[in-house]
Amino acid sequence: MAQLNLKINGKNYKTDIDPETPLLWYLREHADLVGTKYGCGIAQCGACTVHMDGNPIRSCVMPISAIGEAEITTIEGLSTDGSHPVQQAWDELDVPQCGYCQAGQMMTAAAFIRDNKAPSEEEIEDAMNPHICRCGTYHRIRKAVKLAADKAK
Ligand code: FES
Ligand code: FES
What we know:
Blueprint: E1 4-8, E2 11-15, H1 23-30, E3 49-52, E4 55-58, E5 71-73, H2 85-92, H3 102-115, H4 121-128, H5 138-152
Parallel strand pairs: 1-5
Antiparallel strand pairs: 1-2, 3-4, 3-5
One FE2/S2 (inorganic) cluster binds at residues 96-102, 133-135, 137.
């Protein structure tokens, strides 16, 4: 089996596992990066969201062979000290309940506020809508995205 090189959170990883292995499995089972969660496995819930070259992707349906030279960022790589505006806003507004969906939500929020520092409520709703939270933290999440965008200005 061919060796694959992956760049994750600024570090290089080598692997010779099946190239069709979804990135989520690689992150959790092989790279010991368990902040990214398995929810549905079919790109529907958003729990597994990470960044690929800065853009949110569903890692449960992304084979590692499709990553190539792209940089992967997981929730562990958002910042090393909790200083990212999204982390600060989530902390300030005490957003998570069980926490299961939150890493994925935060990764989408981080990419969103990078590109939009003054989002409308509708834009926030559209950006975060693809994520499912079984605890119903939607209201706090929307407020936290707004706060994070303000902090990122
Ligand atoms: S686990 Fe990937 S979208 Fe649900
Ligand atoms: S906080 Fe529990 S699933 Fe969202």
